[in-house]
Amino acid sequence: MAATKAAAFLGSQQCLPAKTGIAVPLSKGQLIRVINTHGKQVVDTWAFDSQDPTSHLSMEHTRASLLKISIGIGDTLVTNSRTPILTLVADTSPGVHDSLIAACDSHRYAQLGVKEYHVNCVDNLHEALKALGTSIRSVPSPLNLFMNVPVAGDGSLSFAEPVCEAGQSCTLRAETDLILVMSACPQDVTPVNGGACADIHFTVT
Ligand SMILES: [Zn+2]
C-alpha cells in the first residue's frame, strides 16, 4: 500500500502549503529534495519505518552516532534502534539545521501567550500520519531542516531566523522503506521562520 502511495508523489514537484504537514512514503533508495522556496521556512522532519513506526529517526541516537549536533552532506541519520534511516546526500543551503529543539505544540503556544488554538507541528504530524492510516503514541524529536539555533560558547541557545536563501534545498535518501513526515512549521510568535510562514516544495525521485 505504501509503495502505491509513494508513486503518487514521484517525479513532479509538490507544494506543502504554509503551516501544514504531509506524510510521504519513500521506498529504500528514493530521494526527496526539500526546497526552501521562500528561504526562511523551517521544516520539521520525521521518518518512521514503514513496517514498524516505533522504529523512527532519532536525533539523540543520530548525535551519538555522528558525534556532533549538526548534520552535513554524507551523514547518515539513524533510528532509535541505531540503524540507518536517512542520508543527507545534497545540501545547497549554508548547512544550518537543528537537531536539538522539540517540535512546536499546543503547550508551546500557550506558554508564549497565545490564547486561541494555534496550529502546530505536533498536530500536523499526527494528522499527516492519520491520512495514511497510521498513528504513533509518542512524538520523536524532529530534524529541523533550515532551523537556525545558534549554540554559544557557554552552551546557551537562541532562536534566530534561517540563514537559507530562496530556492535552496536539502536532499535526503531513504535507507529503508519509510514514511517521511514534514511540517512547514507554523511558528509565527518567535523569529524562527523569519517572521512569516511560507509554502515549501518537494520532489521525490
Ligand atoms: Zn513548529
TrEMBL record:
<protein>
    <recommendedName>
        <fullName>DUF1989 domain-containing protein</fullName>
    </recommendedName>
</protein>
<dbReference type="Pfam" id="PF09347">
    <property type="entry name" value="DUF1989"/>
</dbReference>
<feature type="domain" description="DUF1989">
    <location>
        <begin position="16"/>
        <end position="179"/>
    </location>
</feature>
<dbReference type="InterPro" id="IPR018959">
    <property type="entry name" value="DUF1989"/>
</dbReference>
